[in-house]
Amino acid sequence: MSTPDSGHVPTLHLTEPTVLVTFSGPDRSGVSGRVFSALAAHDVEVIDVEQLVVRGRLVLSVLVTTPGELPGFQSDLDAVGADLGLEVEVVHGTGDNRPRRVGRSQVVVLGAPLRPEAMAALTKGINALGGNIDRIVRMARYPVTAIRMEVSGADPDALQSELASIAHDHGTDVAVQEHGILRHAQRLVVMDVDSTLIQGEVIEMLAAHAGCEEAVAEVTERAMRGELDFAESLHERVAQLQGVPAAALDEVYENLSYTPGARTMIRTLKRLGYRFALVSGGFTQIIERIAADLGIDYFAANDLEVVDGALTGRVLGRVVDRAGKAEALRDFAAQAGINVRNTVAIGDGANDLDMLAAAGLGIAFNAKPLVRDQAQTSVNVPYLDAIVYLMGITREEVEAADAADVTTAP
Q1: Which of these is catalytic: 173, 194, 321, 354?
Q2: Does the annotation mark 192 as catalytic?
Q3: Beta-strand (E) ranges in 179-255?
Q4: Digit-coded pLDDT (tens) for 236-248
Q5: Whole-angstrom Cα distance, residue 339 to residue 330?
Q6: What ranges do the domains of the chain cover?
């Protein structure tokens, strides 16, 4: 007999007879136990199991090798179904339920609300690319609906490109990740700050103290759309802050608002050993305090020069620009000992594009059209914790972990 370490694993030949048993009807406690107890009375091997419960309705399918005595097998299963009030279907065939095809991907759809016409268009798009949907699971019901589809037979890159266009047309978001062992490894999440982790732009809040908020906001908007070089635009905007008291930095920090779901996302992923980094075109005097508040592992930002208690209108050192953000992502990954392929980058502006491209998963969060169109994945719901659904974590798991923390707190 082969052992798990013997190097040989017995396989079921595709032409060998099998039986697919499906129970469907009202869900109740103990169904699986009764079904497998009935199967245990016959000399069969379990090959595959699928179970789904939606609004109290159960579908349980078990694929087994063909038993030696079929009439008794059918009779025992019918008796279980009758006792539990379930319909029973027994289908005879050959082999496994087919080998998994190449090109396996996880497709997550986010909608608020999620409309059936969007799901129809996305599933047709998967089919048009030669894909087959092997499994569909709900990840969350609120504050957004998140559905995960496991797809085989289609190229992940082609899926991402085609489905992103379809999702945009239907006002939904979609993320495609290739299945593989790296999906389960520790990850590094690198985030932009202004208009991503926090609501609004710090430089515009500072500009309000100098009476030039409108002019600075116009330059910021053009830079985020990619119309201006970021470093040049930063120097231009910071110059207008000359003379602003340094105490304004404290006031701005105290009045910051995190994006809804930010703390939930960070808390949830840090439970799983994820590392976090902030890479910002903003200012160290603000970013380091945010990092301390949220337990962020790394950060990179720009240093405002302060002399005699006031801003000079100058930035010290090299500006953290578009290229600098991508460089920081790689540096932080190296410090954390995490493969760059296992990094997640989240941003909204044109200066985030190189960082999003460098990451294993680049997510445009409520981004400008230029960024949304070029990013691997786009999330346009206003909740940052929607990111955890892309990581394969359900809303129920998040809430259960939070509840456990409350019950175990001293």
Answers
A1: 194
A2: yes
A3: 188-191
A4: 899 889 999 999 9
A5: 9
A6: 17-94, 105-185, 189-379
Report pLDDT digits (tens) over 250-281. 999 999 999 999 999 999 999 999 999 999 99
157 is an active site residue: no
Helices then strands, each counted (H, E), the chain: 15, 15
Which pair of structure tokens corresponds to residue 280?
């910002």
The arithmetic mean of pLDDT across residues 9-37, rounded, is: 83
1: its two tokens: 């007999």
Superfamily name and number for 189-379: HAD superfamily/HAD-like (3.40.50.1000)
198 Cβ partners below 8 Å, 6+ apart? 256, 257, 258, 259, 262, 290
Active site residue: 27, 173, 192, 321, which one?
A: 192
Tell me how far apart the alpha carbons of residues 140 and 386 are, in angstroms, rounded to a whole number: 9
Pick one of 3.30.70.260, 3.30.70.100, 3.40.50.2300, 3.30.750.24 as the CATH number of 105-185: 3.30.70.260
146-181 pLDDT, tens digit per residue, is: 999 999 999 988 998 899 999 989 999 999 988 776
CATH topology of domain 17-94: Alpha-Beta Plaits (3.30.70)
Long-range (24+ apart) CB contacts under 8 A made by 78-81 are 79/38, 80/23, 80/34, 80/35, 80/38, 81/23, 81/25
Q: What is the band of 10 on the pLDDT scale with cuts at 50, 70, 90?
A: very low
Domain pair 17-94 / 105-185, same fold? yes
Mean pLDDT of 178-205: 87
